[in-house]
Amino acid sequence: MKTYMDKVHTWGRIWIIAALIFFLCIPVAICLHFNVTPRMDVVGKGLASIAFFFATGIIEVIAYSPMLGAAGTYLSFVTGNIMNLKMPCALNALENAKVKANTEEGEVITTIAICSSIIVTTIVIAIFVVIFAFNPKFSETMASPAFAPAFQQVTYTIFGSLAATYFVKHWKISIFPIAAITLLLLFVDPGIGVLIPVGVVLSMLGAHIMFKMKKV
Amino acid sequence: MFDKLFSDFKSDGFMYLIILAVIIFVCAQAAFFLRKAWTRGKELGIGTDKLKNAVTSSAMFSFAPAIGIAVTVISLSVALGYVLPWIRLTVIGAIQYETTAAIAALEAAGLTGGISSPVTDPQIFAEISIVMTIGSCLPLILIPIVLKKIQKGVSDVASKNSAWMDVMTAAAFIGLIAAFIGRGLAGTGSKDAGIIGDGAGVLSITALVASIGFMMMFTLINKKLKKNWIDALAMPLSMVLAMVVVVLLNQFAPELAAIEWRY
């Protein structure tokens, strides 16, 4: 008999393959609608400029899926905005529900959190885009020097709030990754796409050594 | 009144039909998994309060970042209209990728004005849509192939040594958080002197310190009052209050707010 997790993988695969086909059809539909033939050299040149997306895509799947859970991974990669929205949302829900990731309870809670986030985000974006489109003055205000810097800091407010929970609880294994990442950034800033897997690997390495030394 | 929405070929009725279909697809998928997870949660004996808390907290939490995403749609709308950036940021996309992909595609098409010049040629618009879509599709191909194996590996390790796995899971989360905390402390911005707040500086530290402070305050309050709703709202409220602090600092002490040590 199929377990819940087996079923999640079956449903997830069906939805993600449907999503892939659907999303690839969008540019095809745009070409047909405007009756234009894309120039392959232009498309090739554009894709070559963002070839690093493919590398980060592979890293993201390996690095994020154990934290997001099975359904959370299928859902998050279809809807995007993983680092700045889905992942912290899942972590917050796990913490509030006091359940562990990588258990079936954790799987259920992260799924519910990510689904709720997707629905709310989709509605909020739709409402605000329509408001912005109807009211250019409002969009100018949001993009003005008075408000724009605040939106640049949204990510820091998300991870600051999460840090308050996680670092207090696991302060022993938190010091090394923060110090190592900050030190690294003083010499080179590889961008957040590279910094996250580096942070995860360094943190796990430090924690593994401390675990073997029986310090945690 | 609808003139502004259907302003040009990039935002015509057909494009709105596409975004409508995308919204229906995304919400249907989320509703499907939400229902399945809710039913399974009840079977596992998870209380309705806990399940409801997960919904409320996540919904509240998503509000501020969603507005941030909508602002990105606006920043891309000058070049690409409202609908294509809206589609891209509703599926697969992420704020930091979509802007880069759009600029790369515009440059490949020979347009040097970046995202501040409107695209007027439907052929170029179609090419940009292809580049932005294909550039982010690889995970959707990989996940059906590798995810079950990754999850099985994680679950096998967890069953063999649960104490070690607990530490490693916490460490993975901390590594993720540390990457963003590190960027707030020492990350570089886009060298463009006109952008305030994209590099580590007074604003990023204020956002970090304020959100940590508010979160700790709510945790302490909840230790005394022991109310579930405080747990659920602590993080979204901490985020919003920290953003208010950032806006106020930027309004009343703009010179201090503009200080960045890594730009």
Structure, explained:
The complex is a heterodimer of chains A (216) and B (263). Chain A is built from eleven helices and no strands. Chain A is globular and about 65 Å long. Chain A starts with a helix and ends with a helix. Chain A has helices at 4-34, 40-49, 52-68, 70-79, 82-97, 104-134, 136-142, 148-152, 154-169, 171-187, 192-212. Chain A has 216 residues and is an all-alpha fold. By secondary structure, chain B is mainly alpha-helical. Chain B folds into two domains: 1-136, no CATH class; 187-263, no CATH class. Chain B is built from ten helices and no strands. Chain B has helices at residues 13-43, 48-80, 83-90, 95-108, 122-134, 138-160, 162-186, 202-225, 228-252, 254-257. In chain B, α1 (13-43) packs parallel to α3, α4 packs across α5 and α6 (138-160) packs across α7. The longest helix of chain B has 33 residues, at 48-80. Chain B is globular. The model of chain B has no long low-confidence stretch (mean pLDDT 88). Classes of the chains: A mainly alpha (216), B mainly alpha (263). At the A-B interface, α1, α2, α3, α4 and α5 of A face α1, α2, α3, α4 and α5 of B.
Q: How does the overall form of chain A come out from the CA principal axes?
A: globular
Q: Total helix count of chain B?
A: 10
SSE run of chain A: HHHHHHHHHHH
Give the overall pLDDT of chain B as a whole number.
Answer: 88
**What's the Cα radius of gyration of chain B?**
22 Å
Strand content of chain A: under 5%
Please identify the oligomeric state.
heterodimer
Percent range for β-strand residues of chain B: under 5%
